[in-house]
Amino acid sequence: MRGKSGLLPVATVIVALAAVSTSVAQTAPDSPPPPAPPQAPPPDPSASRGSETPSVTIIPSQRVQAILGQEVRSTADENMGRIIDVIVDAEGQIRAAIIDFGGFLGVGSRKIAVEWKAFRFVPAAAKRYRITLELTRDQVKAAPEYKEGKPVVALGASGSLETLP
Question: pTM for the whole thing?
Answer without folding.
Answer: 0.60
